[in-house]
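Last lecture ended with a question: if I hand you only a sequence, what can you say about the shape of the protein? Today we answer it with a concrete record. The protein is glucan endo-1,3-beta-D-glucosidase. Below, first the input exactly as provided, then the predicted structure, then a couple of comments.
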Amino acid sequence: NANNNLPQPDQVAQLVEKQNIQYLRIYDSNPKVLMAFSNTTIELMVGVRNADLSAFQSQSYVDSWLRNSILPYYPATNITHITVGVEMVDSLDDATNLVVPAMRNVVSALKTANLQDRIKFSTPLSSAVLSPSYPPSEGVFSSSYENVLRPLLDFLEENQSPFMVDLYPFYAMNNGDSSLDYVLFKSSSSIFVDGNTGLSCNNIFDAQLDVLHFALAHRNFSRMKIIVTETGWPTRGSPYASIDNAQTYNTNLIRHVMDGPGTPAWPHEELVVYIFSLFNENLKQGPETERNFGIFYPDMTSVYNLVFPDKGGRSWCIASSQALDSDLQY
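The predicted structure:
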């Protein structure tokens, strides 16, 4: 468990609605959470946990999971995406080979229910699948992941599924790779010009995203949609982790996404971004930063003030490691 102190799902649903958050990502398919978000306008991205990927190699198991864990709540609960595993491809072990077969079984189950066009599916990857690339137009995938990326990209293309990625400019800052203004969207001028394209960039988030855009384009997948399934900033645990920096990063990120116009290399592509995370996670393993990405405390008071706009019908997304105390891997 990553939390043992969270509010009840119906309280979380009320909080999310009150904050004008329109899109929520959870990391499992807990029935209490799915029930809590029924008859709301919130669009839900649900997840298959890494621990369940072995079971998802069986089509009959996946059919049963869809029938028992998803369909009873749909469409009253507006489930729009299913994520299959989380950052599994990064591990470079045998488990990575479970992802695409599991997704194939999910597709097959959705087709049986005639929902393949209504519920999209993919698997979130970390930016580790990209080679360190500068400038962005030199972006390529790391050859270490070739064996798993080739079938994954073909599968996503075949099913018109989005490429999901977790991007954290915070770690560029934490590793000393960048200036704070560049990472917090505070640079008013260009931080570099891509010599190959002549395009200038003024923040690290866009630069990281364009590395991915070019990596996909170099593989002839330039039309593949990208969803940033996690980004955020911790409030404690490192010299750059502070309430002030977290508020600045997420506020400026929201403004950047809402104002458009995409990234320098893909200016017409609408940005779809999920902020991690709704709550701090008091039991999460690892450095202190890992437990302090939340924008709310478990008592539902704000860690800092973040305004979620509703401009022209476009609203905001939040990734919640769990919307209650459920049996999660992280």
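Comments.
1. The mean pLDDT is 90.
2. Residues 243-259 form the longest helix (17 residues).
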